[in-house]
Amino acid sequence: MSGYSWQELVELLRASFFESHAWGWRLNDGHAPDGDMPRAECSPYAQSTLWACVVDARRAFDVLNTLEKRRLFKHVVLGLSQVEIAAGEGVTQGAVWQTLRGCERKMLAFLNGDEGE
To answer: What is the pLDDT of residue 43?
Structure first.
């Protein structure tokens, strides 16, 4: 594997906070199967590495400091714009942008091993 891209990491980070995002379905949409329906069975030999990648994203998130975590969570998981985050925190949009770019660099360096570059 050549390493993670930022777009992949954003999706994996969302999935790490919301299990339903990883599976692509909503848990409370009213279309749940009846309780007496048989459960699906899966083979551990045919499963993907999705959850390992989700864990990687969460480990990279844990590398960040508290300010970086808060701003990245608001932007990526809650979907707030940089302007909304800046207004809520009383800082400039540029400060939020710098923090988010720093998060991107730190997380990708942690996952892809680019710390010396």
So the answer is: 61
Alpha helix segments (H runs only) across the chain: 6-17, 19-23, 50-62, 66-72, 82-89, 93-112
Distance, in Å, from the CA atom of 56 to the CA atom of 73, rounded to the nearest integer, reads 16
Task: Answer for the pair 10, 76: CB distance below 8 angstroms, yes or no.
Answer: yes
Q: Cα separation of 16 and 59, whole Å? A: 10
How far apart are the C-alpha atoms of 108 and 72, rounded to whole Å? 14
Return the pLDDT at 117: 46
Chain Cα centroid distance, residue 100: 13
3-state secondary structure 25-48: CCCCCCCCCCCCCCCCCCCCCCCC
Separation of alpha carbons 13 and 41, rounded Å? 27
- Contact between residue 58 and residue 14 where contact means Cβ atoms under 8 Å apart: no
- Walk along the chain (117 residues) in steps of 10 and give the mean pLDDT of each run: 81 78 51 64 65 85 94 93 96 96 94 68
